[in-house]
Structures are given as C-alpha cells and as structure tokens.
Specification:
152 residues; alpha+beta; 39% helix; 5 helices
Length: 152
C-alpha cells in the first residue's frame, strides 16, 4: 500500500499513542472524522497497522536482564530450520527472533528476570535442538528503545 502524507501523519500519531480518538486524529491531520476512520481501517486492512497493543515496561515487570543470543545452525536445511524456529519461538522469553547474515545464522533477543532465569532459558534452548554454536551477550544499559518506525 502506498502511504501518502496524511496517512504518514496518522501513523505517527498512532505509533506514539493508539488511544488518541479518531476525532482528535482527524483534527490534527485536517480531515473530518469519517474519512480519517476510513484511512485507519484501510491501513489496518492492508497490514500497515498490524495490531494495537499495550507496551509494558520490562523492569517494572521484574524483567531486568536482556540478552542477545546468537546461534550457528547445526544444519542448513529446511527441516532443521523449521524445527529450530518452532523450538526457539516457543519461549515467552524470546521477544525477537531473526535469521541473520554473517558469522551467526540466528539472533534472539531474550528478556528475563536475572542471570539465573537466563541460565534456565539457555539450558532449555540448547537441549531442544541440535546447535553448532551459541553465544550470548548481555545488555548493560539500554540507550534507546522505540517501537516507532520512521514514516516518510
């Protein structure tokens, strides 16, 4: 879907606060309520807006440790990939999961309470599927975090 300037304004508003009323959004972008609502519905139907969620504060939830886990595949075939993807995706602690280029094949962002919780996660991760190599790095400080995508 092509996003025009008004759609971009609507998306910027919604990315910062999805609870803003359609009336307020319409006023901010210079539309009446009905055309604004139709645009939002079109953005949802096209998949530009995937879903509306509440963002939680990890530390306030007792989840103060973030680890980035890099994995080298034991095999490079479709069967192994599907098995690993299913296994790694099954953990609630895995909040992001990517297939990568470079030295490591996959990267997982893992959020847990502490190092003990990470150790339990790690043992479960490596016991479920054959892996070639796994390395983990821990975030010492979060410098920037946003879910807001650049909209042009």
């Amino acid at each position: 879907m092509k996003v025009d300037a008004i759609d971009a304004q609507i998306l910027r508003i919604l990315q910062n606060d999805v609870t803003v009323s359609v009336n307020d959004i319409a006023e901010q972008v210079g539309l009446s309520t009905t055309p604004c609502w139709r645009r939002i519905q079109k953005l949802e139907a096209s998949g530009v807006i995937q879903k509306r969620v509440a963002l939680l504060n990890a530390e306030a939830m007792g989840l103060g440790t973030t680890a980035f886990v890099q994995v080298k595949a034991a095999k490079h075939d479709d069967k192994w990939l599907k098995a690993f993807a299913k296994h790694a995706s099954s953990f609630d602690e895995v909040v992001e999961f990517y297939r990568m280029s470079g030295e490591y094949d996959y990267m997982l962002k893992v959020v847990v309470q502490d190092l003990k919780a990470f150790d339990r996660f790690y043992k479960n991760l490596v016991s479920g599927v054959d892996l070639s190599d796994v390395t983990s790095s821990f975030a010492m400080e979060q410098i920037k975090y946003t879910t807001v995508l650049p909209v042009h």
